[in-house]
Structure formats: C-alpha cells, structure tokens
Amino acid sequence: MTRRAQGVVGLLLAVMASVGCRAPGTGAAPGIAVASDTLRGVVRLVGSEPMATLAVFPAAGDPVVPQGADAELLRSLTGIEVVVRGRVTFDCAADAGPRGARIFELASFRVRAVGGVRAVDGILTRVDSGWRLVTLEGEQIAIAFLAPMMRLQEGARVYFVGPFDRAPSTYGIIKAAVR
Amino acid sequence: MRATRGRRGLACAALLVLAACGGGGATPPQAPAVATVTVSPGAPVLTVGLTQQLTAVVQDVNGSVLARAVTWSSNAPLVASVSATGLATALTVGSATISATASGVIGTAAVTSLVAPLITGVSPATLVPGAIATITGAGFDATIANDTVTVQGVLAPVVSATVTQVSFVVPCAMSGAVGVRVRTRVGPSALFATTLQGIARTIPVGQAWVSPDVTTAACTELAVSATPARYLVAVFSNATSANTLTDVDVGGNPTGLAPDPTPAQGLQQGTVPTDPRSAEQRRQDAAHYAFLERERQWFATARPRGITMNARVATGAGRAVALGDMRSTYFTFTVGCSDSSQVVRGKAIYVGTRSIIWEDSANTLQSASLPALATSYQRIGQQFDSEQYASDSATFGDPLRRDAQTDGDGKVHMVFTQRLNGSGAAAYVTACDQFTRGPGLYGSNLGEYFYGNVPTTATPNVNSTASPDGWFAFMGRTVAHEVKHIISMASRVANGAPSFEASWLEEGTARHAEEGWVRSRMHNTPWKANRGFGTAAANGLFCDFALGDATCLAGDATHRPSWGMRRHFDEILPKLTQPWNWSPYGDGSGQSGSVFYQTTWSLVRYAMDRYAVSENAFLTGLVNATSVGVTNLSAQAGVPIDQLIGGWGLALYADDYPGLAGASADIGFATWNLRDIYAGLHAQPAWSGRYPTTFPIAPTVLGWGAFAQRVTALRGGAHMYFELQGTPAQNQLISLRSIAGDGTTPGTIRIAITRLQ
Fold this sequence. Notes:
heterodimer; A: ten-stranded mixed beta sheet; 1 helix; B: 757 residues; 36 strands; 26% helix
C-alpha cells in the first residue's frame, strides 16, 4: 500500500473512530467488513500506571487500542510511528480514553518513522560476513555498518532509522534474539 | 583471473584408456596438460598514461605450475594495450579485457582505465561545515562509493558524483585555510586549497547553547581564549522513544580520518554497571515489574471477555456515608474494568470534608484493634482534607470536577486494601471509575477513587512501610500523587480530550503533586527558593531522608514522619550515574524501577523553573490540554523539545556548580540546589554508601585539543556528559559523527554546551 493510500485509510479510520464505539459484549454490530484495515500513527502508552493503556494515535482522530499477540511488541515502540494492519472493530476500550477508543484487532505492524525520519523494521540476518535486514515482506536490505550492540541480535526483530545508503546509527529492538 | 579448458575431461579420459591398455609396454611420458591460466591482478584500475605489469600463472589439473609460453592480447587495444610480456598500458578512459593464452587455455584481467582525479575548483569559495559544496574537475568516479572526499583530512560524505563533479557535505574542520582532496580507485588528487569558515561560538561563563538541529550539532567550533576554561558538553538524543538507541563518535579537533575512538563511560565498555538500588528497592522494583507484566497480560486477554456484572454487589455510591458504614467496592486491579468479580468489603473509618477512607475488612491489621493504625488512617484523611485537596486543586484542578456526573457525594474515596500488598504498586487509580458501569465497565465504581496498600505488622518501624508509622510516612505523599491522576483523568473527560495523558508525563507530573504539597506544607519552600538539603531543625529534605530523626518528628508533628521529596531525589539516581541509559520517556525494555517517574519530574521541574510564568498555570495547562506527551510539554514551555532536553541536561550537572556565579537560568533548577542536596546525602552516614561522592554525575573529563570518544546505545531523551578542561591553545572543534566512519551524523543527535569556568 502506498503512503498516500495509507493516509487515506488512516483518515477513514479516524473518522470512523470519532463516530463512537460500543463496549464489548453489547449488541450484534459486526466489526467493519474489511478484511484488512490499516492505520498509521504513533504508539503511546496513556493513563496512569499501572493501569496505563497502549494505543496508536493517528495524525487526526481518536486513538485505537491494538489487541492481539503482536500488541505486546508495540510496548517497546512508544513514541514511534507505525503502520498497524488488522481489523478495527466497534468494540470499545472504554477505559483507554476520555471518549473511549476502538479496539483494533492487530494482525501485524511495521515501524515507519522515528521523530519524522524514515525507519524500517525486519529480522536482522547475517549473510556471509555481512548483515541484512529482511523485512516482513521479504525485501533484503544490506546494512553497511552494524552497531556493535546489534551484533548480538542476530535473528531479532529490529528497526533502523535513516537512509540505508549510509550506515544507520539509530536503531531499536522490537523483539530480542532468542539465545 | 582463472580459466579452465572444457576439453580437459576428454584428455584425462584418453590418458586413462591408454593406461588400461598398456599391457606393461613402455609408454613415452606425456607433458601435463594446461588446466588453468590465472592473470593477476585480475581487475586492475590504471591511470591513463601509466602501466601495470600483469602476470600469468599456468597450472595443470593438480595445481602444479607449468612452464608454458603465454600469449598476451587486449580486446580494446585503444583503451588498454598489453605487451608481449604482459605490461598493460592505459591509453584512454574505458575498460578492456586483457587475455593470457597458454596451450589454448585463456585467463583474463578486466582492466579499468581512468584518469587521475583532478580538482579545478571548489564551490562555494568559502566552505561552511554542514553545507553542501561541489568540486569540479575531471577523473572522478560516477559511482558515489568510489569517491572519497576529505577536507583537511576529515572525511566528507559524498552526496552526488559524476566524472566531472562531486558534491559533498562539508565536514567538521577548523576554520581557516584547508585542503580538499578527492580519492578515486586510481588514487588521490592533488590538494586543492580553499578556505573554511565555521561559526566560532563564544559561550560566556554561566551561559549555554543548545543546537537546534542536527546540522549545527554535527560540528561545534568553540571560540576560546588561552586562559583556563571548563566547559560541560552534553550530547543527547532527540528521539522521543526510550527504546530508540543511537551511536555516535565524539571527536575533538578532528584532523584526519577518524581514529579508533576511546570508549566513553558506560555500557559500551562491556561492563555491567553496579546497580545503585538497595536490595529492598530491587525487590520492590522486581515486584512492580512483575505486576506490570501481569497487567499487560490482562489487557491482552481478559478485557475482551466482557465478564458480566455480579448482581449481588451494589456499591451504594452516592449515598451519604457515616462512620462505620460498610460498602462494597469493585477491585479491578488484577482483573480489569470489565470484571466485577473482585469486591472489597470496606468499612468507613474516616469521613471528612473531602474524603472518605474505606478499610478493607479482610485486612490483617484492623484499625479498630490497633490504635497506631487508626491514627495513621486519621492523619491521612485529615491531611488530605485540610491540605492536599487544596494543594492538588490549586496546582492541577479540582479532583471533584466531575463529581456531579459521577457519584455526586463531594468526596474522594480512598480504599485501603491488603489485596494490593505484594503487587509492587503502593497505590493506583483506574480510569474506568470515571465512567458509568455497564458493558465493558462492570468494575467501575463511578466516582473519585484511589486504592492503596496497607501495613501488615503492628510493630512500629518508621523505616518499614509494613508498619503503621512507616506506612504513613510513605502513603502521606502518595495520596497527593494518586489524586493528581484523578484530576488528570477527570479533566480530560470533562474537556472531551481524545486521550489521557502519556503515561511518562502523567507520572512525572504526579510527582509534582507530591512536591507541591511537600514544599508548601512541610519544607516551606517557595518556587525558585533554591533550597538545599537543609537540616533537621529546618524541617527540610534532611527530614525526608531521616524518617526517625527526633528533631524532625518533634519539629513537625503534623506531617512527620514523611518521605517528602525523598523519591524525587533518590530514585533518580540511575539517571544521574548512567545518564545515557535512562530516558524521561519511560523505562526502556528490561529496565525496572520506574526511574522515569522522577526523571520526567526533573525535566518538568526544569521546564517550569526556566519557562513558566507560574507553576500552577503550567501544570494546570498540561492537565487541561488535549495534546499529550512531548507535544503537550513543549507547548506549555513554549520552546522546542530539543531546547528542553538540552537545557535540562546541562542543568542536571551545572545547577549550583561550585564557583559558578551569575549562571543563566538555562542551566539551573531555580527551586532546588542539587549540589547541596547530594553533598548533604553524601555527608549522611546512613546514605553515604549510596552516595559515595558529593555529586553523582561524573562526566568524562577531556583535555583540549584532539580526542575521540564513542557513545553507544544513547537512549531517546538521554545524555552523555563530557567536561572539557584545561587551557586551550586555540579554538576547539567538537564533531559528532556516525561510528560507521562514513562522515555522516546521526539525525537524532544534538549537543548542548555551557561554560563552567
């Protein structure tokens, strides 16, 4: 999906989210009949601890609350811009925001930007004597220089910030390598 | 380059046949067949007009070298010719394949013929670090990666290239005459003389400068005079995520290609820092972290279940409460808002003007049979009614702002239950209490509630939160903290904000609720009073760290014992000892201890001391905003977040720096004297083990001139400190570059500098 298309979908979801949501277990209103919804926004943890809630904030409109196995991984990405894919529902995480927040059944996500600078995530892979980032779409991106700390993270899901024609010096770990 | 002959197999087969049929008769020895011809170098790059001797090695199938005649030829003799002895000559720019043939087997070398790079001009005439400049001339390589540009020996990132032009980012080099050079695969050009003029920054003693962007951060030229001087340099990341890490090389007066840097202090040295926390604190942190993990699990799995309401429970919210009344309260801490299965049966043991205290009837210790506990509860309630309600209201807003829409009783409810003990949380507030009970919110108590843990042993011990007196000392300021959360949530609901506040800022400002009450009622410390550690007689910070001190207890019997501001200044210690590793934007993955509570508190304290018109207006503004996090904080301060993070970083170290008089407000905390506070802790026998020096931040000390330091894994919003000291001989350059050595600067990197001497 192009960036423009993502923006359109994000705006659509934002408008839908502002219409309101229903609490879980009420009525028979189905989730939106779209196989895969996409939303671009910044991951934030909101509210007071320890009852804080993870939400994804689009540029406009109300946040959504991602749920699902991969939602846990977003915990390490607060403050970072991502694209989430899955299904937005009418169900409401009522305690997540003053107006409630739609629950987003998260199927997958991609890191897109840090502080407005493009970022790419994938699996850190060693190929011969070099390193590559293998995106979830299968694209292989050669990494000109890998930060020393990241050399211990072969097999981890990570992200790098900045253009890849230079060595990326800003990075993060989404899911650490299993040793 | 090596080649093999296709008919080699046939020859071998023929030899085998002959051997099999020999029948013992004499057979003339066969000359070994040529299997490969290898030409080296295989891909020479030659300058036009120059020569390169090529060699050919002829081998048989076993790798044995054979003496065979070799014939040389070029497929493009106008580009590169070759003599009968293998001497290649580059004639014009282009490519040619040179072949060596022996017994029909061919080996080749791919010759690239180039002209040596020649610089005829550099534009602009005066180079500016960080700006784009263009070299014109000839012999450059159209592939960016094959052109290396240096300015005064310092690598410059190339951004575009043709054979006649190369554009590059002017690197960090000292102002003055410089030589520019281009190196291609052929070799280097001659130096081209031009000039470079950076901005020589003059930073007076006590003043500060914060880079507004990465371009200015990449190269700083300090204008210095030949007198003893001391500067604090804070390199920081402007990423707004605690888990975003950046590596950067910090160079002083770079005059050549980056040397191997010396590791600066920190994790990059491969050492595991000593955990500054006490064993008890570590235990509590671990419990807290475990709780958070359970919460995460709950959010992922339990909430969607929509557990039905327990019809037997009626909270009785809204009814007038009298002492001794019993009430059931939903306890959603472990099960979530949608679940009404957990109920605390509480007894009203305090009914005041603004608060009601409910004591869980299942608690091990009951106030009815333990006077010391009854007293602690009473003091908590009275303290809130007479002081904290007003303090929190003035600072943030009325916690009962939505009372008419909730339970309409004009009270804040404090539910003290042992169910919370051992969870790692001393107290909590849940947003679901702001909403009407119903689907997904069956656990809502619809009112202004917070929940706290309780003491479990009757034995007095002011230093243990398990004892009634020690619990009171801790819980007293916790009430102000938790009620701030109620205010924040009520305000956002009332204002129709799209979201609650980001957790890091919510918790950091809740520390300000504690501070507001403690300063006004206990320490008697006005805003910007620059208060230090104090003494027992002055009822200051000293008493917050010496809970059992008789003078403190006697001097303020209303509030003491109390932790006061202890958590603010003590639990920030990891940030002070490992400043690169702790972010205000939350604890990073694998970190525990909620260090960010006080780290963010400190950031907000700086922002208010430096930029606010009044503390209350600033904090009320944060609570009533519809934006969150960095956007909210930056808007209230009226400056970009880079300015806040940079200035705050300087202030953490430079505040009340010894001998630094007349310092700018940019580099200090006007309300607190950090140097005096930590020197005071260092001087206390009970605390000197945790504070072995008079001040916990220890910058890496550097001399003037050339230096190379590497910073790795710098977290978003975190700092690495350097102190430049000595007598400078000339202006000082500080460059920040990628550790990959490609001359670029990570986009998240910024720098802040102040002169201390």
